[in-house]
Design goal:
The protein has 291 residues and is an alpha+beta fold. The protein contains twelve helices and six strands. It has a six-stranded antiparallel sheet with strand order 2-1-6-5-4-3, sandwiched between helices. A hairpin with a 6-residue loop joins strand 4 and strand 5. The longest helix has 26 residues.
């Protein structure tokens, strides 16, 4: 066994052990009456028994016992979904269980808790400056009208492609050219790799990387550099497709939506000079007339 294989096996073993301990902790906090089972006067352990969870989830008792023992068995998304419902997990607990199992939650809530009415009002108040809500994976969760006027509408893309990685490397329908593209792309990947360090086994983080590795030689070359970089603000230059708008110099400013745990943030594209501010105002006026 190579060192890399041994490390991967060790990581898998740690995740299985964490999943086993987490399932035991959820099982022990639930009483039989909470799930419609008859209670008994004498129980050696708190909460539900393993056979009761297996019955509620319609899985074999032996298989479920192995799962709680951290054995190397396959856990499908459908089976883990049934177990999560049997154990009455809330969304955060479900997300944790599926991350430990290394599979995607088929019942994941598509709406982000960060996109509240207050945050949407903030996006509107930032007009005519482009603004968006992103999470740690650079997925675009919400945006304002000015964002569409400059960068295009993320809704035109498949849901899995509404992230900065795909839009920078593969989406050629945007209304601007990136004049600093040679700097922006390596920087984006370096920041994503740094953010991904604590989530390397999670499907939601791996999926966009694996897809782009398969379809983009440019992405593959940059990703294999294994560079990392912190989150910093820069002035970046964009050339709008409309010649009457032309050059836009925008500084990316991040406003973190604490105390949310997934690095939700509002990204505002702030004009770096008076000319850019005037051009964004002109673009907003046109959008209002055509909208």
């Amino acid at each position: 066994m190579t060192p890399a294989t041994a490390a991967a096996a060790s990581a898998d073993g740690l995740r299985r052990a964490e999943l086993a301990a987490f399932l035991r902790s959820r099982r022990e906090r639930i009483t039989p009456d909470q799930v419609g089972l008859p209670g008994t006067a004498r129980r050696r352990t708190p909460g539900l028994r393993r056979e009761e969870v297996a019955h509620l989830a319609s899985v074999g008792i032996t298989w479920y016992t192995w799962l709680e023992q951290g054995r190397a068995i396959n856990v499908s998304a459908a089976v883990l979904d049934a177990i999560a419902r049997a154990l009455r997990m809330d969304p955060a607990e479900r997300a944790h269980a599926f991350a430990l199992a290394g599979t995607t939650d088929p019942r994941a809530e598509p709406d982000s808790p960060a996109v509240t009415p207050t945050v949407l009002r903030l996006l509107r108040r930032l007009e005519p400056w482009p603004a968006e809500v992103k999470n740690a994976r650079y997925e675009i969760l919400a945006h304002n009208t000015a964002y569409v006027g400059v960068f295009g509408d993320p809704a035109e893309l498949e849901p899995g492609h509404r992230n900065a990685l795909w839009m920078m490397f593969m989406n050629h329908r945007r209304g601007v050219q990136y004049l600093d593209r040679d700097v922006m792309l390596p920087e984006l990947l370096a920041k994503y790799r740094k953010a991904m360090a604590e989530h390397v086994a999670e499907p939601a983080w791996k999926a966009p990387v694996e897809e782009l590795l398969a379809v983009s030689p440019e992405f593959r070359e940059l990703w294999e550099r294994r560079e990392v970089a912190p989150m910093v603000s820069h002035v970046k230059r964009y050339l709008h497709a409309d010649p009457e708008i032309g050059l836009l110099r925008l500084e990316h400013r991040h406003m973190w939506l604490a105390p949310d745990g997934d690095a939700y943030r509002v990204v505002a594209y702030v004009p770096a000079d008076d000319e850019t501010e005037e051009r964004l105002a002109k673009l907003a006026g046109r959008t209002a007339l055509t909208g």
